[in-house]
Amino acid sequence: MTAELVRGQNHPLPDTRLELRVSAGHPVVAGATLGDERGLVAGAEWIAHPGAPVRPGVEVPAAPAAEHRVAVDLAALPETVHRLSLLLALPPGAGGPARFGTAAAPFVTVADPTGAAVATYTITGLDRESAVVALELYRRQGAWKVRAVGQGYEGGLAELLADQVASAAAELAAGRLDAPAAASVPSPPPLVPETAPADSASSTTTISYAHPSRRPAARPAAPAPGPDTAGTGAVPSPPAGAAVPPQESRPAPVAGDATGWTMDERLYNQVWGMFEDLARSVAAYRSARDFADHRLDRAVDQVLADPSTRVGGAGDAARAAARATHEELMGRAQEVLDRDLAQLAAESEVVEPALPVAYARWDNPAWHAYRAPEEPPMAVRLGDLHLPERGDLRIPFLVRLPLERGLWVDSGPGRTSAAGLLDETELRRLALDSAVAHTARLLAAHPAGALTVHVLDPAGGGAAAFAPLVETGVLAAPPARGAAGVTAVLAQLTERVDLLQMAVRGDASEDLPPGFDPARQLLVVHDFPHGFDDRAVTRLRYLADEGPSVGVHLLMVADRADASAYGPVLDPLWRSLLRLTPVPDDHLADPWVGHAWTYEPPTVPPGSAVLWQVLGQVAEARRRNHG
Amino acid sequence: MTVNMTKGQAISLEKQGGGSLTQVRMGLGWQAAPRRGLFGSRTREIDLDASAVLFAEKQPVDVVFFRHLVSDDGSVRHTGDNLVGGVGQGGDDEAILVDLQRVPVHIDQIVFTVNSFTGQTFQEVQNAFCRIVDETNGQELARYTLDGGGQYTAQIMAKVHRVGSGWQMTALGNPANGRTFQDLMPAILPHL
């Protein structure tokens, strides 16, 4: 049974002789450091790298390559070694990618002597980093374990080593690393550049990806480097308190810590677990608050009702006592809520970066490594959810695939202040942009060619917003224009639903016409009801009702008021759709307690080309599939 | 070591060797009494339901029963309705899990009740018990046997209540009548 590790997760090792296989898809340099029980590397002789590939118990390849096999014999390591870290770095100037964010995510396998995989780890979430601690093998109470680390460094190996090597030895290591590497490798990767920062720690610690257990925030608390380490270019060694990895000393949350057959399912379940826990913790708090308020009211009423206490000191004292009890209960309730929220926030911090693209925010670096999946994920993220008790604790709003109901991005004036501040045109533009982003995500979540998207844009008003879909070539056909276009697309999809329903009922799926597109279909409707006649409206309602069960899905961008002429006949349509908004809006209720959650649509970072890039990949995968 | 509780007896819910309990399970088990005579094999099925009512200063705040399996705050969970009993032959037929650390601060008592949903009296039930188990290690802390089945259709079994910073369990064993917990409210209130 192979364990699929996520960042921070550990796994026992069955054997002391192991092979670490690296598969990066592009040349990388592999190295290893041997650390003591505090994780510190004593000096250059404890580093295996292409210039000195053999160290006691470990041998690394002598040249950069896309595939590596690193042989490890844990039993042969010196007694003082408690940790072996596997490092990967991009060789600069070799024509390959300069940072991991633009390359395929490296994949590491830990194999036993028979070659069977014990654990695997895909190093996702890297962006500007050019060196990374892939994983570490560590000794804990006599037994060896592997932990997925995935700690990247923007400053490359220099920064990585500075983080690991005991400060006093850093200069030594830097000096020795350069020379042998240059002697043995034709185009030597400068493991430690000569310009290694020489003065302050602050300039070297811009680690862009904060591992929760290695939060850079802990660094300012580190003691200032002593005189012996000043000027060596080393980051001060971690403070004494950080010597033991926090994961071991207190149960830190781990991404993928839920049940499921696959990592996808485990993360999905974990996100829903966090959603439920947040709903319930807040329910406990609100229940206590309501009770406390109610009790205070009652006590004050009682004081007022009793003639003996209505005036004078006794009444004041009784009121003060009631307030004190109120304060005391609220204090305890707040304390419990803070405890729960802190725990969930810590979990969110590890889960969010570990999410696969379908569940990730658009600013997640995982998107840079996007490739069309082999299988659709369980769900897609349609936005974020939060409660007023803690606005910055965002729960990914994951909706199962295939979609059980259509989506409706409401472009009408909402009830919330956020919508009220925007004018109508702006709101419609945002709604359309957000629908395009949802469409892009749905396309990206499906394997190549497994989702066909049709767009209805009767008046052509959405041309600018639909450009990413049109120009990358991910649509089946250009957006349908005019009443004739609307009718044609709706007729085609209605016929499809009819055919599939007959096939399902008659158990005759082989009777479908030759060349029948087996892909799921998504119909994006803009400008409703413009260009729709009564027949088209009937067909649309039919698709909304019958489509989802046979893989025909609906995404409406509409203001309900525009269709008010149809009267209540359309009410069932609106009710059947999952309403999303282009601006934050508190219209979604959780299934457990029924709190009103604020939904926030996913936003593409301003100026980011991620949507275009991902859609380009989708189109590319589709062409490869056809070719 | 299990304590066999008697009516009205209270035990403190603390771990042996100090430390407070974090998760307890209130388990309920029963069997339908065999009938004598002709067609004796036609044992009537009896549907007993366990419920838990959460109180804050004698005000009911939330109820966990077969139609609302988890309290809103998530601290009390019912494992699901068992319609016939006797499944475990001594094991729990219905169970309610209480995460004591998660019980909201204002909740000071949780009362456990059993009702006969199908209307048979406890005369037709045998080997009925309720027990409290430390869910973290499966150790049984206390067991209370419902002996002397009488002409009643419900029992107020026990309550778990705050004492200082910990919790205490008191066996109540009070007979009552009713189909669901709502009917029992008047009978519960004197025990708070």
Describe the model.
The complex is a heterodimer of chains A (627) and B (192). Chain A is α+β, with helices and mostly antiparallel strands and 627 residues long. Chain A folds into three domains: 3-240, Lipoxygenase-1, CATH 2.60.60.30; 263-354; 404-582 and 603-626, Rossmann fold (3-Layer(aba) Sandwich). Chain A contains 13 helices and 21 strands. In chain A, the strands form three sheets. In chain A, strands 1, 2, 3, 4, 5, 6, 7, 8, 9, 10, 11 and 12 form a twelve-stranded mixed beta sheet that branches. A five-stranded parallel beta sheet of chain A has the order 16-17-18-15-19, sandwiched between helices. In chain A, strands 14-13-21-20 form a four-stranded antiparallel beta sheet. The radius of gyration of chain A is 30 Å and the shape is flat. Chain A starts with a strand and ends with a helix. Chain B is an all-beta fold and 192 residues long. Chain B has a single domain (3-33, 43-185), classed as Lipoxygenase-1 (Sandwich), CATH 2.60.60. Helix content of chain B is 2%, strand content 44%. Chain B contains one helix and twelve strands. Chain B has one helix at 185-188, and strands spanning 3-4, 10-12, 23-32, 48-56, 59-64, 76-78, 94-99, 109-116, 125-134, 139-145, 154-163, 166-176. Chain B has a six-stranded mixed beta sheet, with no helix packed on it. Chain B has a six-stranded antiparallel beta sheet with strand order 2-12-11-8-4-5, with no helix packed on it. In chain B, strand 11 and strand 12 (166-176) form a beta hairpin. Chain B is globular, with a radius of gyration of 16 Å. Chain B starts with a strand and ends with a helix. In chain B, 41% of the residues are buried. At the A-B interface, helix 4 and helix 6 of A face strand 5 of B. Chain B: It comes from Streptomyces hydrogenans. Chain B: This is Export associated protein. Chain B: InterPro entries: Stress/Tellurium_Resist, TerD. Chain B: Residues 1-179 form the TerD domain.
